[in-house]
Hints:
Elements: E1 8-9, E2 16-21, H1 26-32, H2 35-44, E3 53-58, E4 61-68, E5 90-93, H3 100-110, E6 126-128, H4 134-151, H5 159-172, E7 176-181, H6 182-188, H7 190-196, E8 204-211, E9 221-232, H8 241-244, H9 252-266, E10 272-282, E11 294-295, E12 303-304, H10 312-324, E13 330-335, H11 339-345, E14 351-354, H12 357-370, E15 375-376, E16 394-395, H13 404-413, E17 422-426, E18 430-431, E19 441-442, H14 447-454
Parallel strand pairs: 1-6, 2-4, 2-5, 5-6, 9-10, 9-13, 12-16, 13-17, 14-15
Antiparallel strand pairs: 3-4, 7-8, 8-10, 11-12, 14-17, 18-19
Amino acid sequence: MPEFDLPCVRSVLSALPLHAVRPAGRESFLQSLPRAEAEYLRTCGFAGTAGELMLLPGPDGLSGAAFGLGDDRAPYPFGDLPFRLPVGTTWRLAGGDYDADGAVLGWCLGGYRYRGFKEPKREPARLLLEAAHDYALAEAHAIWWVRDLINTPANLLGPSELADAAIAVAARHRARPVRVAGAALAEIYPAIAAVGAGSARAPAVAGFDWQGSRADAASPLVALCGKGVCFDTGGYDLKPSSNMLRMKKDMGGAAIVLGLAAALMEADAPLRLMVRIGCVENSISGSAMRPLDVIRTRRGLSVEIGNTDAEGRLVLADLLAEASDQAPALLIDCATLTGAARAALGPDLPAMFASDEGWAARVAAAAAFAHDPVWRLPLWDAYDPWLDSGVADLNNVSTKPFAGAIVAALFLRRFVAPGTPWLHFDLYAWNDSVRPGRPEGGEAQVLRALCAVLRDGRVFIEGDRNRAVT
């Protein structure tokens, strides 16, 4: 993971005070100011409503700023500030009714711009860090990296380059790297090899195994699997051009898994991690898989290809089989898997599927706390026969035009070893528009929610891999 120049500084000769104010605290805030500043804000009608920004004049120019938070408790409002406050200025948080770590995180998230080809029109204002804020900064670094990976054009980030990113983060944290390609890939991960067979850019599986300094061989194992389809044409079931436009983001699940692992390793979580991403491109050629082909999988199940555009579940099938056979305390996968999840929940709300009620409740609570939302959908057993095939163990799609996200999750469940606590996230990994703290482009959905659950390791009962406590 590269180092990023977050819009923060540890020391500076002078920094201007930033007053973040809620409507309910507006009057007490005004009473705390020098009379001239308070009267200025009253005259201008400052009320503390969301996004309201007033610069305070002083004898030497600026003396500070007042910023309205409204009633939003998320970190995102602070993300509105780096590119709204004057260029070249440095600010310090003056205290108020908000979480300082959340403010730092929000500021950093709002200061992100993809710089692969051109610099932003202006540099962001900087925030003076007057406390450690170590975890907020580590989380911001991870999210910036995930966004960069997703935003990188597919001609520059193919399967090999995505695998390189996994190996690089492994090296940074002294993890044991894993990389499989070529003939070995076809033998060990046959479904992934089949998905990538149509591209001139060879598929690979990459990842690493890591153990925190506070962990030992008996510590909980968390397995993380990510769909890394670097570009998805749909294969022979070709996508229309409008649906193909953003398919560079189809590796968003792999990017999020890598960012989550990086954040957990940076926090030295008392865990063991097993990280695997399937790095492929779904293309069309004489060697690409065809509709009604039957392919092998690592689990030994045969799969009839009802649709070549349902390739992400094939990538995850081999990874989930491998990871669940290691008896993890928790298995998590992330994938930009179905349009059906977006049709049901929209772009901002990832779908969560869970085999374990306790883990589902913990993640839902953490998601609400971290303002990183998820919404649970059911693993509805009655739909499982929709995957039946007349020529193979199962089909990769259903012939029914309903419940596409649920059917995809049920397909994945066929490859998870029984009894494994498993969470599957079907997500969008993209911001369609510019909002405070969330610039248009790649997004690290569910990363902060899962970090909140896992980073200190207290959710696990020592010695019992299948149970957890709050």
